[in-house]
Amino acid sequence: MRIDVLTIFPEYLAPLRESLVGKAITDSLIGVRVHDLRDFTTDRHRTVDDSPYGGGPGMVMKADVWGAALDSLATPDTILIVPTPAGRPFSQQLAQQLSIAHHLVFACGRYEGIDQRVADEAATRMPVLELSIGDYVLAGGEVAVLVMVEAIARLIPGVLGNPESAVQDSFGAASPGLLEHPSYTRPVNYRGHEVPAVLLSGNHAEIARWRHSQSVERTRERRPDLLPDTEN
Ligand code: ADE
């Protein structure tokens, strides 16, 4: 998979060189390039924004600059992702679908966002997803890109040391729609808190049953919205 990120703050994406995604890059499982949007401006001041038509606070990112940047990156395989709090919710299911894509381009908006015609015009020639990572407003799309790239990259075969980890996750294939059960490691007694005895029993069927019931209980407590109406 190839990933291109367009931003006015390329340094903001430096964490992609670390940890799991960094290793995937080193191992050539993914290729990541970060581009400075200002390189696609044509004026002396490298202007990327202007005041909104119709008035109101803030600035809007200019369509022509974004258009030139996207033209330079688009291929027949490109899926364009625009992080925005006004997008549809990013999810594990979308991460799964995007993990088999050949080319993702992420367009990081700042200020009041990107002129809507950029996404509208791009959608005439490639799939465009305007996506939100949650119901809160960030200063720009960069952190949302870090979140989405990490969620997508760990699902690419070879990226996780043990692919079973992704299956067992909260929202993973083992228990879709359930939060992951709690996990424990040595010592057996931590400041008076014992590891649940069933995990020391060696009875794998019993352990699987216990973990499932913990998942259901946790989900009921923390995320009842994930359960079918009959279970909450
Ligand atoms: N940009 C600003 N806030 C965002 C959010 N919640 N999700 C995605 N992109 C954003």
UniProtKB/TrEMBL annotation:
<keyword id="KW-0819">tRNA processing</keyword>
<feature type="compositionally biased region" description="Basic and acidic residues">
    <location>
        <begin position="211"/>
        <end position="226"/>
    </location>
</feature>
<feature type="domain" description="tRNA methyltransferase TRMD/TRM10-type">
    <location>
        <begin position="1"/>
        <end position="227"/>
    </location>
</feature>
<dbReference type="InterPro" id="IPR029028">
    <property type="entry name" value="Alpha/beta_knot_MTases"/>
</dbReference>
<dbReference type="GO" id="GO:0052906">
    <property type="term" value="F:tRNA (guanine(37)-N1)-methyltransferase activity"/>
</dbReference>
<keyword id="KW-0489">Methyltransferase</keyword>
<comment type="function">
    <text>Specifically methylates guanosine-37 in various tRNAs.</text>
</comment>
<protein>
    <recommendedName>
        <fullName>tRNA (guanine-N(1)-)-methyltransferase</fullName>
        <ecNumber>2.1.1.228</ecNumber>
    </recommendedName>
</protein>
<comment type="subunit">
    <text>Homodimer.</text>
</comment>
<keyword id="KW-0963">Cytoplasm</keyword>
<dbReference type="GO" id="GO:0005829">
    <property type="term" value="C:cytosol"/>
</dbReference>
<feature type="binding site">
    <location>
        <position position="109"/>
    </location>
    <ligand>
        <name>S-adenosyl-L-methionine</name>
    </ligand>
</feature>
<feature type="binding site">
    <location>
        <begin position="133"/>
        <end position="138"/>
    </location>
    <ligand>
        <name>S-adenosyl-L-methionine</name>
    </ligand>
</feature>
<dbReference type="Pfam" id="PF01746">
    <property type="entry name" value="tRNA_m1G_MT"/>
</dbReference>
<dbReference type="GO" id="GO:0002939">
    <property type="term" value="P:tRNA N1-guanine methylation"/>
</dbReference>
<dbReference type="InterPro" id="IPR029026">
    <property type="entry name" value="tRNA_m1G_MTases_N"/>
</dbReference>
<dbReference type="InterPro" id="IPR002649">
    <property type="entry name" value="tRNA_m1G_MeTrfase_TrmD"/>
</dbReference>
<dbReference type="InterPro" id="IPR023148">
    <property type="entry name" value="tRNA_m1G_MeTrfase_C_sf"/>
</dbReference>
<feature type="region of interest" description="Disordered">
    <location>
        <begin position="211"/>
        <end position="232"/>
    </location>
</feature>
<dbReference type="InterPro" id="IPR016009">
    <property type="entry name" value="tRNA_MeTrfase_TRMD/TRM10"/>
</dbReference>
<keyword id="KW-0949">S-adenosyl-L-methionine</keyword>
<keyword id="KW-0808">Transferase</keyword>
<comment type="similarity">
    <text>Belongs to the RNA methyltransferase TrmD family.</text>
</comment>
